Amino acid sequence: MATVRIPTPLRPHAGGQDKVETAGATVGEILANLGTAFPALRERLFDGAELRRFVNVYLNNEDIRYLDDLATPVAENDEVSIIPAVAGG
Amino acid sequence: MPPPPHDPLERYSRQVRFPSLGQAGQRALLASKVTLCGCGALGTVLANHLARAGVGSLRIIDRDFIETHNLQRQILFDEQDVRDNLPKAEAAARKLRLINSTIQIEPVVTDIDHTNVLDLVGDADLILDGTDNFETRYLINDAAIKLGKPWVYGGVIGSEGQTMTIVPGKTPCLRCLIETAPPPGMTPTCETAGVLGPAVAVIASLEAVEAIKLLTGANDALNRDLIMIDIWDWTFRQLKVAGLLGKVDCPCCKHRRFEWLEGGMGSHTTTLCGRNAVQVAARRPEPLNFAELSQRLEPLGEVRHNAFMLRFATEGYEFTVFPDGRAIIKGTNDIAKARTLYAQFVGS
After folding, report:
1. Distance CA B284, CA B93 (A)
2. CATH code, domain carrying A16
3. pLDDT at residue B212 tops 90
4. Which residue of chain A has the CA closest to B228?
5. Residue A16 maps to a domain
6. In whole angstroms, what is the distance from residue A84 CA to residue B18 CA?
7. Domain range spanning residue A59?
8. Over 90: is that where the pLDDT of A89 sits?
């Protein structure tokens, strides 16, 4: 199973966890499974079937938008990261 | 014996000895002009580094004034500045002139918006982000892409922060990375999540070193990634973003639609992060007459003013009014209520 890294602001919606082991062959499948386990998290990440436009997802250290987006294949031991926009300063 | 001739580079000798900078780099810094947008937590650290490093001309823009809870992380300010009711840009300029009297420092107390941003950054070699909101960052991004000027993004919350260096045409821009900002309520604010001074200092220091590279032409050494750091749990990540350039359908750098510059985006009245306060931006063609306004307000509450601001407290609200007509109203998060209070007490 791949690991999904949950950013600090979203951890309350993922049972307080910073990493969640999630099954799936693509980034989309993994995020869908994650959303089934944590519906409040799904709400934060998706607007219908689309990722919200201020949510970025990385496979290891690569942005999925220049890979295959949600269809990007994920291997065992890969890491999927949800990267929030950081506004403060 | 007469004293040896004064060497203007002597004060910078320790960084001139750093081989990648050298005398040529120092001369380039002294000849350069930087616009710093925002002088709070990130901005004070940035301004401190750049003034000490000898950036020849530094314009510091900030809309806010100093409060005691800023002192935890905004390193150029002290308790006397709070007592003196100084705007941040002015207080920073005074402190920086004590640190380096040989450079030009221009404080500008204003709210950056689509009507003034091009003037504020037009003559700069580089724009630096010391802001605390995406509205201003998108304005900076539009202006930078339109004018072909590099800028450095930085953002911090809690113990973590991000930074990215944006060179028009060579790297993705902020809207390639984050096309739209999260709506209010979707992300934590400084009020809910807090912020650590060292986290800000780390991110601002990374921005500052990118600035030094950009100003001295050390382009090969520039950061090409989105850097993410959490100083509490020791994560340092370099996310590869270079591949976004041209790949994402960016309205700004691909289609050159400058939606924020055109003024169609964003609000002019904004709630201030973590402050139970609303900023009402009502720009006026003529500066407000503080003496007259205080006379009017005196029967209604406690009022005092200096050259930079007027403070007025009444009915549990505190107004801070700036000469350009802008006001920060404390005691409410409600934009409509704030507009009403402004109309009632300051007038339109």
Report:
1. 25
2. 3.10.20.30
3. yes
4. A83
5. yes
6. 36
7. 2-84
8. no
B174, pLDDT greater than 90: yes
- CA of A26 to nearest chain B CA: how many angstroms apart? 19
Is A15 inside a domain boundary?
yes
Residue A47's CB: how many other CB atoms inside 10 A?
10
Show residues of chain A in contact with B38, CB under 8 Å. Answer: 89
Give the tokens for residue B253. 């750098």
Name which of B51, B15, B53 is nearest B36 in CA terms. Answer: B51
How many domains does chain A fold into? 1
Whether A12 contacts chain B with CB within 8 A: no
What single-letter DSSP state applies at residue B220? G
Q: Kindly give the pairing relationship between strand B57-62 and strand B104-109.
A: parallel
Q: Do A81 and A89 form a contact (C-beta atoms < 8 A)?
A: no
Least confident of A44-48, B83-87, B191-195, B251-255: B191-195
Whether the ipTM is more than 0.90: the answer is yes
In angstroms, the CA B285 to CA A79 distance is 55
A65, B131: Cβ pair inside 8 Å? no
Helices B41-53 and B88-99 cross at an angle (nearest 10°) of: 30
Task: Name the residue facing A61 among B131, B178, B238 (closest C-beta).
Answer: B238
Segment B20-38 shows an average pLDDT of 98
Chain B interface includes A35 (CB < 8 A): no
